[in-house]
Every structure is written in C-alpha cells, then in structure tokens.
Amino acid sequence: MNNLSSVSIFGFFANWSPFYLVALIFVTVVYFLTVTKWRRDIPGNRPLKRNEVVLFILSMVLLYIVKGSPVDLLSHIIFSFHMLQMAILYLMIVPLLFFAIPSYLIDYGVSRPYIKRVFGAMTNPVFAIIFFNGLFSIYHLPVVLDYLKQSATLHSLFTLLLFVAAVLMWYPVFNRTELPRKQISGLQKLFYIFMIGVLLTPSCGLIIFSQHPMYQTYTDPKAWLSAMTLCVPQGTLDSIMSTTNISGPQYFTNMSPLEDQQTGGVIMKVMQEIFFAVMLFYVFFNWRWSEGRDEEATTQRSLEARQKEQAYFNQFR
Question: Which InterPro entries would you find in this protein's record (predicted)?
Fold first, then answer.
C-alpha cells in the first residue's frame, strides 16, 4: 500500500481516539471493581482467575486497536481494513469476552427479571445465528453501508447492534452458565459453528466475486469525504482538502477500488476460517473430555451399585 503513513495528516484525535481510550479504561476499572470489591454482593461469586485477567485486558487492548487506533481511521478509507476490523471485532473479541468475564457475573446479569425472558428467547440458537448473519448481510448491502457511513449516529447504533447480536450468537457455544437452562450438546455446537461459516459465505462471496466496486463511500470522493466525518472533525477535513491534493481514498493505497474490495472479502473469509478452526478444535476437545468424564462417572456409579449389591448378599452367607 502507498501513503498509509499519510493518515497522520488527520490529526491526533482522529488517529488515536483519546475519548474512546478513556471509555475503555473506565470499563476496565468498573470490571475489576465488580469482580473484586463488589463481587460479594453477587450470588455464586468467586475469586478472579489469572487467565480471566489476562483475557479481559487482551480484549480491551484489541478493542482499542480495532476501534480506537489508526486501524479504525483506515477502515473508513480502505475497505480491506474495514473487513479486518469486522473479523477481529465480531469473530475474535466477542468469544474472548466469554472467557474473560466470570460466568457467575454473566448469570447474574441475564437472570434479572426484566432481562431473563428476552435474553432466553434471543439466545435461542436458531434465532441468534439468523439475527447476527442477517444484520451482517444487510449491513454490507451497498445502499445500507453507504447510507450508514454518512451518519455518525446511525453508524454507531448499527455497530453496537451488531456487537450485541454477536454476543447473542456466541452465547450458545461459549457460555459456562450454571443456570438451569437447556444447553446444546458438543456435536450441536460443532454444527452451529459450521452453519455460522455457511451463512457468512454469501456476503463474502458477493464482495469477492463482484466485477465492479460496490461502495460509493470507498470510491466516490464526495461520498468518501462525507463518510470521513465519522472519525475526523469537519473543520480538520476542510483544512486538509484545501491544502492537499487528496482526491479520495485512492490516495492512501496503490490498489484499485475493486482490488481493495476483493482483498477485503478474502481477508474476512480467511480470518473466519482461522478463527472457526480454533473454535472447532476447542469445542471438539471439550466435548470429548466431557464425554470421557460422563463415562467415568457412569462406570463409577455402576461399580458402587455392584459393591452395594455384593455387600447385601454377603450378609446371608
């Protein structure tokens, strides 16, 4: 790519999002207060594990990288970075959070009377998988993406909605709840992850195999400039455009708009396959381990029953 370092002209606030960093620090402080000082008020609480600390901090760092660093700015300029951001945010960070947040805390939140029924319905595997993939496909329709990227409020709301939908989608796979609710089996989890990949494929395929650029906000200078107000103050943009020869997103990359679009689709598909391979291995390993434990428990119960029968008959000898 060419002139990537030139994004520095958009200024410190656009590149490093200090307010977003402050928000993530605030979330991190609240998290540690909740799982340490305040946890005694939560039923089923336990001390925080070291791996939960590491994974939560890692999740916050990744969140800042994809949504607060120059990666976020580049995602509004180059479509490849947009798809990289999507893959890490919804297919990596969300699953990590299920291991970073103690299960008792999640159980406490989702068992609140005003949340329990709605959450139970929305984490139904059929609904959850269709909900996220439907939103993801709708979001990447050219008319929808171009419209959302020219409204900061609508774009933020839809991004938040996608994040919530991703949490709902991954809950049936990665939750470690102790609540009395029906869980899908290990084999069903394997099929569920496979189906997520299947449902994501049409959007990636459409982006990869399209014969022309689909998104005006990544090709048309006027639409692109309007979309850049999502992360760059209007005054800064006006100053840059009046003092430089930037004519659109192509200034920052040596790829054509079509090549950039196709590369973005390939990035999403490849990262999806990598993440899903790790998930399938994890689910399969845990499934076989739990099956082994169940077999051992069954054998132990049979042995204990046999010993009791033998002790009973020994009384009459």
Answer: Caa3-assmbl_CtaG (IPR014108), Caa3_assmbl_CtaG-rel (IPR019108)
Q: Quote the CA–CA distance of 199 and 130 in Å, as a whole number.
A: 8
Burial bucket for residue 2 (CB in 10 Å: 0-12, 13-18, 19+): exposed
Can you give the pLDDT at residue 306?
Answer: 56
Residue 211, C-beta contacts closer than 8 angstroms, at least 6 positions apart: 258
Question: HSE of 11 in the Cβ direction (CA atoms, 13 Å)?
Answer: 15
Provide the mean pLDDT of the chain: 89
* Residue 247 DSSP one-character state: -
Q: What is the pLDDT of residues 155-177, one digit of tens each?
A: 999 999 999 999 999 999 999 98
Contact call for residues 229 and 164 (beta carbons, < 8 A): no
Q: Is the pLDDT of residue 310 over 60?
A: no
Cα atoms found within 13 Å of the Cα of residue 36, Cβ hemisphere only? 10
Q: How many CB atoms lie within 10 A of CB 232?
A: 21
Nearest to 101 by CA among 174, 181, 192, 182: 174
Write down the pTM of the prediction. 0.88
CA gap 214, 218 in Å, rounded: 9
Sorted by sequence, the CB contacts under 8 Å of residue 42 that are 6+ apart come out as 104, 105, 108
